Each structure stands twice: as structure tokens, then as C-alpha cells.
Amino acid sequence: KTQLVIDLRIAPVGDEYILVLADDRTEIARVQEVRNDFVANVSHELKTPVGAIGLMAEAIESSADDEESVKYFSTRLQKESKRLAALVQDVIELSRLQSTDVVRQSKLVDVNNLVASAVDYNRIMAEGKDIQLLVGGRARRPIHGDPELLGTALRNLVENAIRYSPEKTKVGIGITEKNGQIKISVKDQGPGIPEDEQDRIFERFYRVDPARSRQTGGTGLGLSIVKHVMGQHGGEITLWSIPGEGSTFTMTLPAVDEQSEQDLLGPDIEG
Ligand code: ADP
């Protein structure tokens, strides 16, 4: 499929008006280029785990008599296949997000519940590194949006905070509500992100430390997904980080105002 961007304009010429129809080839070329880059990157990213899985399987076959080796290669095989599954899932999620600007379902979402389930989801990973997850603050008003997408975005932030932090540190998730805006921030005591890379980490497959990201199961797509989800909800994602001290990622979303909440919860008025 190619995307055709057509621009229709009515232009005055003397006393008359003419209809101008223009197709924006530059835009089409740009969209196509972004798409081609993505396909190239995905193919490249898929090659690593797929290749590794093949090698592990061969290694298991050739060391069938050696129980230790079989165990070692099986564990690595499982790790690679998990990574492959996560990558495929993220690619599908991101392609879906990129193919439309409209949120799939619009519901009233309780931010407090969203935070609680993101914490639950990441609890085992945190325990594995002896990282304490702390939650503070509450939102009074809900937000409007797709609970699944918002959940995915928040889970990604909490997962990153744990993934990149050293053992025995703390990750804080704070909720604040002010002037009709709800902020959810995820703060860690990890390595932080160098200033010149702070914008770039939201790009697809950009990693500050590629080896570390891959080794810990990262797909390189988490933050792009977060950014798209925020864009679709009229929100934004910001980052505050001092290298060596930690990072704070903040999602800002508009709270539902009281009147529209009433309208949504009340009976439908017809006619
Ligand atoms: P990945 O799957 O590699 O984590 P993301 O898109 O989620 O992909 O993140 C992109 C990169 O940003 C990561 O590879 C990592 O280098 C950096 N990053 C993300 N979150 C953090 C964090 N909390 N602390 C330090 N670095 C981070």
C-alpha cells in the first residue's frame, strides 16, 4: 500500500475561483522512506535472535551426551526465543500504532489502577534484582483513552527503569494532578542518559548501549511505542536525567473534566 496525500484548495484568480488539486509527492516519498527504513531495521534485528536460535539448536544436537552443555544451550535458546517473541510483539504493536492516529477504544481510565497493574506486572523482574518499587500520590480524575495502550506504555517505562538500574536500588512511580493535567513519573537510580542522546532514545531501535539492551531482553522499540501512545492521547512523554544519577520519565495526560465525565457516565439523551 502506498499513501497518497492529496491537497485540495480553492484559489482566487481575478474574479473567479479555481479548484487546485495537488498530490504531495514529497510527503509520499518521506512516508515510503520511513517505512523502508523500518523494514530494513526490523529484518536486521530479527536476524540476530533467529541466527542464535539456529546455532543453539545445533549445539544441543552435537553435545547430546553432555548434560551440562545441553542445559546451558537450552537456557540460552529459551532466552533468545523470548527475545524474538518480545520483538515480534513490539513490531506488531508499533506498526498498528503507526497506521492510525485514532485510539482504538476510548474509555474512562483510572490512572491509579493503571499504575497498580504496571507495578504488579513488573514485580517479579524487580524482585529478581532486589529493586524496591515505590508508589506515591493519587489522581482524583480519570483520563480518557485506550486502557490497553496506556497500560503498555506505562509498563514499558517501569520495565526500563528496572532493566537499566543496578541491583538493590529503588524505582519510584509518582502520580500528580494539577491544572487539569495528570502526570505519572517513573524515577530510577540507574545510569542516566547522556544529554545528547535524550531525544534520540525515542527513535525506533536507538539504544545508548546496544549490547546491554539486547542482553537484558530489550527490543529497542519500547520508548517509540510510549511516544506514539502519548501522541494519540493528546499527551506527552518527557525525560529528565542526570548521567550517573538516574532518569525520570514523565507521562503527561489531560484529565477528564467534570462535565464530560458526567456526560459519559449519564444516560444517553436522544433527540
Ligand atoms: P530497549 O528495549 O532497548 O530498552 P527502549 O526504546 O525502551 O528500548 O529504550 C531505548 C534506549 O534508551 C535503551 O536501549 C537504553 O539505552 C535507554 N533507556 C531507556 N530507559 C532507560 C532508563 N530508565 N535508564 C537508562 N537508560 C534508559
UniProtKB/TrEMBL annotation:
Enzyme Commission numbers on file: 2.7.13.3
Transmembrane segments: none
Subcellular location: Cell membrane
GO molecular-function terms, A-Z: ATP binding; phosphoprotein phosphatase activity; phosphorelay sensor kinase activity
Enzyme class label: transferase
A GO CC term attached to the entry: plasma membrane
Gene Ontology BP, a term: cellular response to phosphate starvation
Catalytic activity: ATP + protein L-histidine = ADP + protein N-phospho-L-histidine
Residue ranges of every copy of the Histidine kinase domain listed in the record: 41-257
Keyword terms of this UniProt record: ATP-binding, Cell membrane, Kinase, Membrane, Nucleotide-binding, Phosphoprotein, Transferase, Two-component regulatory system
Record-given protein name: Sensor-like histidine kinase SenX3
